[in-house]
Design brief:
Elements lengths: L1 H37 L17 E5 L1 H9 L4 E7 L5 H12 L3 E5 L1 H7 L8 E6 L6 H11 L4 E6 L4 H14 L3 E5 L8 H6 L9 E4 L2 H9 L4 E11 L9 E6 L7 H6 L2 E4 L11 H20 L1
Parallel strand pairs: 2-3, 5-6, 5-9, 6-7, 8-9, 8-10
Antiparallel strand pairs: 1-4, 2-4
Helix pairs in contact: 2-3, 6-10
């Protein structure tokens, strides 16, 4: 007697399951359509995959991404944390869509996995990788501004945060470029780009094989070189005007002996405290702005 009721209940349950499945499919289709309206997806449909190419790099953080777009970088793919919608993200999305970039909304865990800095702020941009400048670009920038060349040379700076901070300082203090060695030193990475706060897009960075040889070549073009070292003369007593190159050494060992011998004079930062050294990027900042101060004083 119970069999017909069981069969009827089973039929009703199957109908409810099919109806629920249809609703779920409809919801998924609607969600997918909404996502497609907002997102440009690559032809193979792998919207959350990085475009693995040797000539691409990642830029992390809202300010860094905005500066990259503002400076004319070509965006290839934008990764945005799903659920974040504010004015800054909206502006970034608008510019990337206008440029024809692929846009992918991913969860925070995915961005965390992609992030090198750990501070992506919900957005990571993939674009053409950084192209190092040529030496002539530095001189062209100085000529354009009608100023004597001011160059910061880094002798084996290894910390990308320091490199990024120095590039930022270079831009703000009026330096026309930064020179770094190809070996045993940090290069341009996502961490450097973020630490530079966008300055990397406006300040030429040149990579050279040998810093000592580069100093010799630049001397022939009229530059004088000041080497930062605790044993040097106080910066306030040094003439840091005119065409000048400021040499900052490695975080631990400072400027190497060979490079120091190539410099015209050694300058130090007066200090009063219980420790005897400054972080490399801080030292670069203090000396760079002393150079700027002397330049401004001379023009008055």
């Amino acid at each position: 007697m119970n069999k017909p009721d069981n069969r009827r209940n089973s039929t009703k349950k199957n109908f409810e399951n099919r109806s629920e499945n249809r609703n779920q499919k409809r919801d998924r289709a609607y969600s997918q359509k909404r996502r497609m309206d907002e997102t440009s997806v690559s032809e193979n449909g792998a919207e959350d995959e990085i475009l693995h190419e040797e000539n691409t790099s990642l830029i992390e953080g809202r300010n860094a991404v905005q500066e990259a777009l503002r400076s004319g970088k070509t965006p290839e793919k934008l990764f945005v944390q799903d659920g974040i919608r504010d004015a800054a993200i909206g502006e970034i999305l608008s510019k990337c869509k206008k440029a024809g970039a692929l846009i992918s909304f991913v969860d925070k865990q995915r961005l965390d996995q992609m992030s090198e800095t750990g501070h992506h702020q919900g957005v990571i941009l993939q674009c053409a990788s950084y192209t190092y400048s040529q030496m002539e670009d530095i001189f062209a920038l100085a000529e354009k501004k009608g100023e004597d060349p001011f160059i910061i040379l880094l002798d084996e700076i290894e910390d990308p945060h320091n490199l990024g901070a120095i590039i930022r300082t270079a831009n703000l203090s009026g330096a026309h470029g930064v020179i770094i060695p190809k070996h045993r030193a940090a290069g341009i990475t996502a961490t450097v780009v973020k630490a530079s706060a966008g300055a990397i897009n406006y300040t030429p960075v040149v990579k050279v094989t040998n810093i000592s040889k580069t100093i010799e070549e630049l001397k022939e073009r009229g530059l004088w070189f000041a080497c930062a070292d605790m044993g040097g003369e106080e910066m306030y007593k040094c003439n840091l005007t005119g065409p000048i190159g400021l040499v900052i050494g490695n975080e631990g060992s400072g400027v190497s002996r060979l490079v120091k011998e190539k410099c015209d004079y050694v300058v130090s930062i007066p200090m009063k405290g219980d420790i005897d050294s400054l972080n490399a990027s801080v030292a670069a900042g203090v000396l760079s702005f002393e150079i700027l101060r002397q330049r401004l004083s001379k023009t008055k």
